[in-house]
UniProtKB/TrEMBL annotation:
Gene3D superfamilies: 1.10.10.1450
Domain of life: Eukaryota
InterPro entries linked to this entry: Mos1_HTH, Transposase-MT_Hybrid
Pfam families on file: HTH_48 (PF17906)
Mos1 transposase HTH domain boundaries: 16-53
The protein's name: Mos1 transposase HTH domain-containing protein
Organism per entry: Cryptotermes secundus
Length: 128
């Protein structure tokens, strides 16, 4: 039987409430799950966080680089700006749309890759 990390964390939360130690909790997980049990160090970290008052059994959301979402709206905004004036730079598009530069670049590649592909095919036909 495969038991997920979330299910093991839920078990550890209950084990903390029952007063189990890290060693006891880990040995019970290994006894029940064998090789599928979490590592001792992982169990120790979760047990410590539950003992310090952590409520959630799931991982907390990490801070850091924002998640960029490539939606149809983003594509439409970029396409509209480019149709108005083809001389937009990536940096200028980023400032005016609020979409990060890497995402703008990816959208432009997606929007215009078919166009460039068709031009390349046409050039090769002309050369033949």
């Amino acid at each position: 039987m495969n038991v997920s990390q979330l299910e093991q964390c839920c078990y550890m939360k209950i084990a903390v409430l029952r007063g189990r130690t890290v060693t006891e909790c880990h040995s019970e997980l290994v006894e029940a799950l064998g090789d599928h049990a979490l590592l001792y160090r992982t169990v120790a970290r979760w047990i410590k966080s539950f003992q310090c008052g952590r409520e959630a059994s799931t991982d907390l959301q990490c801070s850091g680089h924002p998640v960029s979402v490539r939606t149809n709206v983003s594509h439409a905004v970029i396409a509209q700006r480019i149709e108005e004036d083809r001389r937009w730079s990536l940096k200028r598009l980023e400032r005016h749309t609020g979409i990060d530069q890497a995402t703008v670049h990816q959208i432009l590649r997606n929007l215009y890759s078919i166009f460039y592909f068709l031009i390349t095919i046409e050039i090769l036909r002309i050369k033949e």
